Amino acid sequence: MKMKDAIVLVTGSNRGLGRALLRVVLEAGARRVYAAARNPVQLEPLVAEARDRVVPLPLDITDPSSVAAAAAIASDVTVLINNAGVLVSSSITGSSADGVAAEFATNFFGTLAATKAFLPALERAGASGGAAVVNVLSIVSLANMPGIGAYSAAKAAAWSMTQALRAEVAKKNIRVHAALPGAIDTDMIRSFEIPKTSPEVVARGIVEGVEQGLDEILPDPNARDLFATWQRDPKALERTFASMLAM
């Protein structure tokens, strides 16, 4: 799936990786990009960079009415990038029920709701040439990092959902990609003392992976190293993440 002339929607595009993804798909030649965020006012600096191609779109993926309204507006989407995500809790035993629920509300249920809402548009695009869904997950989808246990669990569930979706829509000419980045240098984990990759590098890696047709996209060196560990020995990755419990 090429980004040139694609009509792309990026959720959570107001900051961090979402903002970087928006800029990269524009550079790759997307005809139109829907920049989705809960507060579209925050998107004005991005819109100003390419006012003829960037469309601000109010979207809260945890709100069914907001999702339905966005799907009605952006009914011509050919590439859906499910980037919106939250990290609000800590360890499994140290997190409140509300904190764990919030992780799953956005990182799993919200991602699924957005995908289902835009599926009719993607099916039309698939019938006329091709479409894609990109679920921005995390390398901790593969093994749980106990310091962010609820987040890891929600992302693991989203990876499983991605696999199910891939099988369900394959005959409709819709590619489904799981992006599994390592730690990204954004506000979400800026305080974590671990190696991080810039959002710009990760965004370019994700877009390159989509254009190469990769099911699992490993957009940065850290992700590729950890994925190789998991391929050799899944328990080794589990132990690696367990050693980071006190981060």
UniProtKB/TrEMBL annotation:
GO terms for cellular component: membrane. It comes from the Bacteria. Residues 6-192 form the Ketoreductase domain. Gene3D superfamilies: NAD(P)-binding Rossmann-like Domain (3.40.50.720). The keyword Oxidoreductase applies. It holds the Pfam family adh_short. PROSITE patterns: ADH_SHORT (PS00061). InterPro entries: KR_dom (IPR057326), NAD(P)-bd_dom_sf (IPR036291), Sc_DH/Rdtase_CS (IPR020904), SDR_fam (IPR002347). GO terms for molecular function: oxidoreductase activity. Keywords: Oxidoreductase. Belongs to the short-chain dehydrogenases/reductases (SDR) family. NCBIfam families: PRK08264.1-4. This is SDR family NAD(P)-dependent oxidoreductase.
